[in-house]
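In the previous lecture we treated proteins in isolation. Real proteins rarely work alone, and many bind small molecules. This record shows how such a complex is specified: first the sequence, then the SMILES for 2-acetamido-2-deoxy-beta-D-glucopyranose.
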Amino acid sequence: MTTLRSIRLFVIRHRSLLISTVSIGLIFMIVWPSTDSRHNSKQTKKKVLYNLMEETKGVPKHVKDCTIEYANAHKLQQDHPCLLDIIRRQYLNKPSPSDVPLLLDYPNVKDPSAGQVTAVLRLLRNLTNGFFIESGAADGESFSNTLFLEREMNWTGLLVEPEPKSFQNLAKRNRKSWTLQNCLSLEKYPTEVSFDKTEITGKIIGSKVSQSELDNGKLANVQCFPLYSILLAHGQNWVDFFSLDVEGHELQVLKTIPWHKVNITLIAVEWEHVEEGYYAIVDYMKEQGYVNFGRIATPYARDVVFIKDFLDDLRFDYVDYDE
Ligand SMILES: *[C@@H]1O[C@H](CO)[C@@H](O)[C@H](O)[C@H]1NC(C)=O
Ligand SMILES: *[C@@H]1O[C@H](CO)[C@@H](O)[C@H](O)[C@H]1NC(C)=O
Ligand SMILES: *[C@@H]1O[C@H](CO)[C@@H](O)[C@H](O)[C@H]1NC(C)=O
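The predicted 3D structure, ligand included, written as C-alpha cells:
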C-alpha cells in the first residue's frame, strides 16, 4: 500500500475528527497565507496593472476643438472624454426600435452561427437579456454569432463592422443592437488605417493610404477605436459574450483591453489567421485570468473559447498530490 493510499484510508476512517481540524487549517490558509505562497502567486500571475494614460501623458482632459483628427493625431488615451464624446456623437448608431421587424434573407434559420451560439448558451446556462460585442459582425445575418441571442434570448449589444458593403447590409437588418462602421483598434488609442474591402475576409492592412491608392477600389481608409473606448462611450463595463473575428489581428485587439476595468465573461476568438499563433492567444488570455474552455472547430468555425475565472483572485499555490 502506498503512503498516499494509507493517508486516504486514514482520512476516511477519521473523517469527523479531521473535518474540524482541516477547516480550521483552511480558514487559516485563506486568511493568512504564508509570505512564501503570496510571493509565488504574485510571480506566477504576472498581473501588470495597465496604465490608460501611458500613451498620451500630458494631453489635457478638456480639449477645445475636439475632432477625430485631433484624437488620432494625439493618440488620445482610451478613456479620454473627447474621444468618448466623438464616438457617442458621430459613430454609434442606435438599435432599431423593438416594433420594427428584422429584415432577414433567411428568416426561418434561427441560428446562422457555425456552432458558437450553442456553446455560448450552454456555458452561460441559457442566459437571457445578456450583452454581447461582435467584431466583425459582417452583414448581421450570415454566420452571425449573435442574431439568435438577440432574437430569441432578448440580448442586445454592439455590432462592429468596418467593411463598407457588409455594413450597408447590416444597417438594413433592423437589428436591436448598436452598430458601428469601425474597426477595433490594434493600439491603445484611436487610429485610422487602410482596410482591404474584400467582403467576409476584409481586414486591416496598415496605415492610412493616400487618395491615389484608394482609387483602385480595393482599399478603404477606416477609423478604428479601442474596444474599451467603445464600451465606455456606450456606458458599459461588462460584457457576457465577446465574439472576435478580425482575420488575423485578434491578439493585437485583445492586448488593448484594460482587463482590470472591464468584465468580459466569455470570449470566442478566431485563432486560424492569428500571426502569432494559437498558443500566443492561449498564454496571453491565461495571464489575464481566463480559462481555456476549448475550441469550436466545425467546417465554418475556428474559435477558441475563454471563460473568465471568477475564482482567480482566490487561488493560492498548492501541490496536486495525485501527480
Ligand atoms: C437550455 O435550453 C435548451 C433548449 O431549450 C435545453 O435543452 C437545456 O436543457 C437548457 N439548459 C439549461 C442549463 O437550462
Ligand atoms: C423576451 O422578452 C419578451 C418581451 O418582454 C418576452 O415575452 C419573452 O418571454 C422574453 N424571452 C425570453 C427567452 O426571456
Ligand atoms: C467584475 O465582476 C466581479 C464579480 O461580479 C466584481 O467583483 C468586479 O468588481 C467586477 N469588476 C469590474 C471592473 O467591474
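Summary for your notes: Residues 1-7, 15-51 have pLDDT under 50 and may be disordered. The chain has two domains: 3-45, 95-314.
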